[in-house]
Design brief:
With 258 residues, this protein is an alpha/beta fold. It has one domain: 3-Layer(aba) Sandwich (Rossmann fold), CATH 3.40.50. The chain is built from ten helices and seven strands. The chain is globular. The structure holds S-adenosylmethionine.
């Protein structure tokens, strides 16, 4: 098992509490997609669907939609199955690798992915694979952290070692555009969703990072993390007020069509 899968298997039971910081953004993105790009009776594929929060929003917003959630972490899939139990007749779960998609017939009307693009190893191949799973008038919607936006987050400013890892993994918007052209896809919508992560106190902000909530931390050894975390704590203590910490962040939604 690769270290990302191990990371998410371990994180899965805490994921909702730790990383449920973008619900408004996911809701806004699903609303926009449901209004603009998604018709009534659709089959949606959610890649790297995690514990199923975005999937749940699609199934609530569209009572006729069916959804297949693919993830390679058994722990995350288990959480998703629990979350989506009430939609079990419209939800399927697949343990699989986004980098080796096995669907080769055009079965999906919408392929969606939220906060998972940085696990994709070859962007053009990924979009080409998706293109062969989406039907001719279907849509591909990707909600992701544009590389250029990472440095607006305090975690990145205060934790340079983490920032360096994440900069290498995240894609720039321009790369997504270029890969979409290579895959024969047209970008039909681009929206930025700014949001804030709120922490009542500086200590809760520091504690959040001590729980290694982002997969980039999974690439650091324990010794390296301890050393860099100490540095992070020093910077946070000297730069932040004791209460009401707001961390600016932004996700970008790109919608493509064949
Ligand atoms: C940051 S989480 C996002 C989860 C969900 N989309 C959300 O927005 O709440 C990333 C998810 O991608 C999954 N993942 C990472 N690499 C993957 C891969 N190669 N194939 C399938 N899933 C992968 C992880 O297991 C994790 O559940």
């Amino acid at each position: 098992m690769d270290n990302i899968t191990v990371f998410f298997d371990e994180l899965s039971v805490h994921y909702q509490a730790l990383c449920r910081y973008t619900p408004e953004v996911v809701q806004l993105a699903v609303k926009r997609l449901t209004e603009k790009s998604i018709n009534k009776r659709v089959h949606i594929l959610d890649l790297g669907g995690g514990d199923g929060y975005p999937a749940e929003q699609f199934l609530i917003a569209n009572s006729e939609a069916n959804l297949t959630l693919l993830d390679n972490s058994v722990g995350m899939l288990k959480m998703a199955q629990e979350r989506l139990y009430r939609f079990r007749e419209r939800a399927n779960f697949v343990q699989g690798d986004m980098n080796q998609l096995g669907f080769h017939n055009k079965v999906f009307d919408v392929v969606f992915s939220c906060c998972s693009l940085h696990f994709v190893l070859g962007l053009s191949k990924f979009l080409q694979d998706i293109r062969s799973t989406v039907c001719e008038n279907g849509s591909i919607a990707i909600l992701f952290n544009d590389r250029a936006d990472l440095s607006m987050q305090l975690f990145h400013q205060f934790f340079p070692a983490f920032h360096q890892i994440e900069i290498r993994r995240h894609h720039a918007l321009q790369e997504v555009y270029s890969a979409s052209i290579e895959a024969g896809l047209n970008v039909v919508d681009e929206v930025r969703f700014p949001y804030y992560l709120q922490f009542p106190t500086r200590d809760s902000f520091i504690n959040f990072i001590s729980s290694k909530p982002f997969s980039g931390f999974g690439f650091m050894g324990d010794n390296e993390f301890s050393r860099e975390f100490e540095n992070f704590t020093m910077i946070a203590n000297s730069s932040l007020p004791e209460t009401d910490i707001q961390v600016s962040a932004q996700l970008t939604l790109i919608v493509m069509e064949v």
